[in-house]
Design a protein that fits this description.
Length: 230
């Protein structure tokens, strides 16, 4: 079976009703990124950060995977597929994708404020626990924090993601502006024989000067077109 890696960003979930970050009116226009997505912001005002991710979790209960997510999952019928996503939602899993690597963490999980990447402290929340409060503690006694990789923090999953990209026959990039590293740097690991497809309604600057087959459409329509080609 040929191997496909699908690298996704916020645009993958846009048609499910989740805002992207950098488009006009995107999340980073409404909430200063340095307040809600950095360790410094969390140290300054943990309540604000906890509330921000509580709201994101609550939204998760109201949205559904879109056709794009479902078509990505359907690739597993014909290919060995690994999804590498920058998204913290669980829509790929809910659409049926079985191998999903979350580079930037997962909304449905919480961890220790002291040792956020220690697997001992990472815990999946049940939907009725989605509202985290100040004073809720991890097993080490620290405040429960969202299991989210913030700006300035290491991205522990990047190595295993790069290994998958290196083995891919086909790399499909969907709905990411490729502004954020190290995620955007994954493109460089694609072998020279690997075919690279990019689905995005806007023009995206792909680093590393690779030959890219561009489908300038939204995630669902773009995946419909690509599924017919593959
Ligand atoms: P961006 O908001 O930077 O980019 C979203 C991309 O989705 C843009 O290229 C849009 O053109 C595209 N897009 C919009 N609507 C679409 C649709 N219907 N179908 C397909 N594509 C569409 O989001 P990311 O690149 O994901 O990190 O941002 C990367 C990281 O920066 C995020 O994971 C997040 C953010 O800050 C953290 O929070 C740590």
């Amino acid at each position: 079976m040929k191997k496909i890696v699908v690298l996704t960003g916020a645009g993958m979930s846009a048609e499910s009703g989740i805002s992207t970050f950098r488009d006009a009116g995107g999340l980073w226009d409404q909430y200063p990124v340095e307040d809600v997505a950095t360790p410094e912001g969390y140290a300054r005002n943990p309540q604000l950060v906890i509330d921000f991710y509580n709201a994101r979790r609550k939204q998760l209960l109201t949205v559904e995977p879109n056709e794009g997510h479902r078509l990505v999952a359907a690739l597993e019928e014909r290919y060995d597929v690994t999804v590498v996503t920058q998204n913290v939602d669980n829509l790929h899993e809910r659409a049926g994708s079985t191998r999903v690597i979350h580079l930037h963490g997962e909304l449905t999980k919480v961890t220790s404020s002291f040792s956020p990447n220690n697997p001992q402290y990472i815990r999946e929340l049940r939907p009725e626990e989605y509202e985290v409060h100040m004073g809720d503690c991890a097993a080490d006694g620290s405040q429960l924090r969202p299991f989210i990789v913030w700006f300035g923090e290491a991205v522990p999953a990047i190595g295993v993601a790069a290994d998958h990209v290196m083995q891919a026959d086909i790399l499909i990039i969907i709905g990411t502006s490729l502004n954020v590293y190290p995620a955007a740097g994954l493109v460089q690991y694609a072998q020279s024989h690997a075919r690279i497809y990019l689905i995005d309604p806007a023009e995206v600057n792909v680093p590393y000067n690779r030959h890219i087959h561009t489908i300038r459409k939204g995630a669902s329509e773009g995946m419909r077109e690509l599924s017919a080609i593959l």
